[in-house]
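Milestone M4 deliverable, item 7.
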Amino acid sequence: MHIGLLTTSFPRFEGDVAGSFVLGFARALARRGHTLTVLAPEPRELIAPPDFGATITVRFVPYVRPRGLARTFYGAGVADNVRSPLAWPGIATFGPALAAAAARELRACDALVSHFGLPCGVVASVVARGRPHVAVLHSADLHALERLPGGALLARVLAQGARHVTCVNAGARSRLCTVSVACAQTASSASSACSFRSWMVSRSRSPILQSLMPG
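Output delivered:
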């Protein structure tokens, strides 16, 4: 199966800690025989996308020009980066840029996985067009959805275009369902008895995740 993975954080080079857990998730899928195309924000550094082997292709998504102004992602993370006005333009431009890249680069994908609901989960739900979409939400997503004007609408769009929405724990799931009742039918939480990564690669949880990880 060819899987499109949309994320706001992914290692920019071998050994980079940014989004390393997302790379671990991608490698777990690759070990199960899948190939992946990863869409991640273009970093400010003038570097080419990393090479993680034939089964994981990384595409950087340009979202601001000149490239030196790309300050929204990586580094200390979005939450800290946006304390500087220099990072604000990317908040508005990355979503549309990601949607355009997904429509172009992920057309041949059989399924989509999004890490981080804003904007990746929303974009994946819009471009999925009937394909399975598994959305993985993190605590920062819940914080943003609860506070953003239109957060309930964004959560509803995400839920309606996803076969499964995963939250890191039961508390996060409850918060998501409070933001939008549309999420209640698709959202689940990772077991507190195991790590988030091991839950994500488990074959015994979600039927949709099982379909992404056969054998």
